[in-house]
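thread from #wetlab-drylab

HS: before we spend reagent money on co-crystallization trials with protoporphyrin IX containing FE, can we at least see a predicted complex? here's what I'd submit
DV: go for it
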Amino acid sequence: MELGRNLFCSTIGRKLIMAVTGVVLIAFVVGHLVGNLQVFEDPDRINGYAHFLQSLGPALWAVRIVLLACVTLHIWAGITLALDDRRARGDEPYAVNRWIQAAFASRYMRSTGYIVLAFIIYHIAHFTVGVAQPATFKTNIAHYTMKGDYHVLGVTVVRGGTEVLDVRSMVIRGFENPLVSLFYMVAVGLLSVHLLHGADSLFQTLGLRNHRWERFLQLVVTAGCAAYFLGNLAIPGAAVVGLLK
Ligand code: HEM
């Protein structure tokens, strides 16, 4: 009871909530990108992967519930921390340059966060539910017969000959519209910037800032965010210029 109150009511507790949920969400987006990059391989790969995920049934729903809880907590902690910060500052003008930078970063985090949220809602409607574009309706997705087995860590999880949804074609068709592709590219760009600033706040919460590792950590995070952006850019980019067929 006391622990819950400390966690949800104190500033450090809510910063910890932001950090932990942020790390879970980063793990999801990186894993999702690695899975999606299979679109560049034989159709068996991404179609087998999507079929495997769907076959997880209740486990998939458990992961979805955890992700939804993380997104909700992350947004709630972010908003309440920003409100507390504003209340504590009152109407006092910024005296120190560093404060201006901090206020800019936090406003930036909020606006990129809201756009990423809007993107996620559109994206689920687009690919998971299939309602954002009539051409990508789930019911219209062609079926595909697996040529070979699909393995995860050496274990066969989808057998050759199984009829699965042709998720690869759905993704490629989903990016046929250049405006949709452009929206994805802008959204993943903003998400990458959000991750870059988020990692900075994470290091501060964990007390890693002003540490002798700071510069090295910043370099690793910047390279990671750039790689994440390019990986995500590659999929709609390749589809829209006709490199993915
Ligand atoms: C070019 C980039 C991306 C591609 C090609 C892509 C592809 C897909 C596909 C095909 C699905 C539907 C899976 C299915 O139901 O069979 C999906 C679901 C999803 N994607 Fe993405 N995605 C991309 C980027 C992102 C990003 C950047 C995020 C997060 C910010 C994201 C979050 C999600 C979520 C939350 C789902 C729903 C998962 C579920 O079924 O519960 N995706 N994505």
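DV: Residues 29, 32, 36, 50, 64, 116, 120, 123-124, 127-128, 167, 171, 184, 188, 191, 232, 235-236 surround protoporphyrin IX containing FE (CB under 6 Å).
HS: ok that's useful, forwarding to the group
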